[in-house]
Design goal:
By secondary structure, the chain is mainly alpha-helical. The protein folds into two domains: 56 residues, no CATH class; 127 residues, Phosphatidylinositol (PI) phosphodiesterase (TIM Barrel, Alpha-Beta Barrel). Helix content is 41%, strand content 4%. The strands form two sheets. The protein has a two-stranded parallel sheet. β2 and β3 form a beta hairpin. The protein starts with 8 loop residues before the first helix and ends with a helix. The mean pLDDT is 86. Belongs to the glycerophosphoryl diester phosphodiesterase family. InterPro entries: GP_PDE_dom, PLC-like_Pdiesterase_TIM-brl. It catalyses: a sn-glycero-3-phosphodiester + H2O = an alcohol + sn-glycerol 3-phosphate + H(+). It comes from Eleusine coracana subsp. coracana. This is glycerophosphodiester phosphodiesterase.
Length: 195
């Protein structure tokens, strides 16, 4: 198995992106380079609106040396709560499925929230092959379940338009705080924790 750290930046820049799911639009395959984290930051800085970045940090050594139960133990969550504002676990680790039906949820969200950690599970997709039977092939029913019953703080999705529509339909955008104010609050939180 190879990881991105096994390649030079020049080698990575020689690659072109490709849609990994054959049932999705393939017209952009081979047209664009992989971009660096620095390039993502520049896009965010020069956008005509506030663009948040939520880096997905993968350390194969850390992951391979620890089991999932160790990483999500109370002690591990307490340790990381001093350094991060949230966690992004797999949705199936929060509510395990069996035969494509949901089983009772774990207590991971409750334990994370008790430590003031936000929880943003991944990956929400609209295609039927990814929707559990409990949601009757309706991604909006899935969003409702996760946001209002499981009470996660956000979602990672391949279909941001669908999630945005759901948010518009169920809770109109509140203008009490501007995006810049919310970003400043998060920055202050990080600075208070030594960053």
């Amino acid at each position: 198995m190879s990881f991105d750290v096994d390649f030079t930046l020049k080698e990575l820049k020689s690659l072109r992106v490709k849609q990994r799911f054959s049932f999705r639009d393939q017209q952009y395959n081979g047209k664009y380079q992989i971009i660096t984290f620095e390039e993502y930051i520049l896009i965010a800085l020069y956008a005509n609106r506030v663009v948040g970045i939520y880096p997905e940090i993968k350390n194969p050594i850390f992951i391979n040396q620890h089991t999932y139960s160790e990483i999500t133990s109370n002690a591990s969550l307490a340790f990381i709560s001093k350094h991060v504002i949230g966690i992004g676990p797999s949705k199936d680790s929060i509510v395990p499925p069996k035969d494509n039906y949901l089983r009772p949820p774990t207590d991971l969200v409750v334990r994370a929230h008790a430590l003031d950690l936000e929880v943003h599970p991944y990956t929400f997709r609209n295609e039927n092959v990814f929707l559990h039977f409990d949601f009757h092939q309706d991604p909006y029913v899935e969003y409702e379940y996760w946001l209002h019953e499981i009470r996660v703080d956000g979602l990672f999705t391949d279909f941001t338009g669908s999630l945005h529509k759901y948010q518009e339909w169920t809770r109109p955008y509140r203008k009490e705080k501007k995006a810049e104010e919310l970003l400043q609050e998060k920055t202050t939180l990080l600075k208070d924790n030594g960053y």
